[in-house]
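Table S2 (continued). Query chain:
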Amino acid sequence: MKSLKKLLRIFLFFALAVPAYAQELKLEVKELAPQVWVHTSFGVFGGQTFPSNGLIVATVDGVLLIDTAWGEEQTEQLLNWVQENLQQPVKMCLVTHAHDDRMGGIAVLQQQQIPVLSSALTAELAPGKNLGMPDPRLAVGKKQKMGGQQFEAYFPGAGHSPDNLVVYLPKQQILFGGCLVKDVTATNLGNLADADLQSWPQAIRQLQQRYPKTKTVVPGHGPCSNTSALDHTLELLQQHTKK
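Corresponding output:
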């Protein structure tokens, strides 16, 4: 009996000692438009949980992913969701820059022989950040098509990072701004470790000019909205400059 009580005390000690960030983080998926979903995964810093967005695009030839989930475990959850709900193979993943919230699950995809494409600069930067090696042959700035779905990966200039790409879906008028674009509820610019604050405003203006028909903007973190997210990002940049 004493040994049983001792075991229970040990169990309770470790149960209470497990920090919140050690608990399982579960991917969330929400429909954004016909055949397009936002996948949201999570990372924990300083005891706080932060969401990170990517896209799932279904086509007649298979699924296109925009960014992996945040880490390998949640990327496995992402692939399981696609298999269970769409019952289609993932044909390709585009990663928008060399940070772990964009491509932290690259190994999971590559183990399943799923091509992971990026810009040449992202492929150059990723190994130095222990993020593996994506295929650098992504046709940046050119309209492409997969299974009838048009898309364009575009580099508007440095901002959040030197290599931040966006992806535009003309049929749905969706702009995936990634971490270059802040959500409308954001109160600051977030992680500035690799930021180019001088070029960032012009990169946002470039998006406004190139994609004037945009109806939905998907930021790297936080809720989706309309093009007001672009205006809000410019406002945050102005506020930061005045500090």
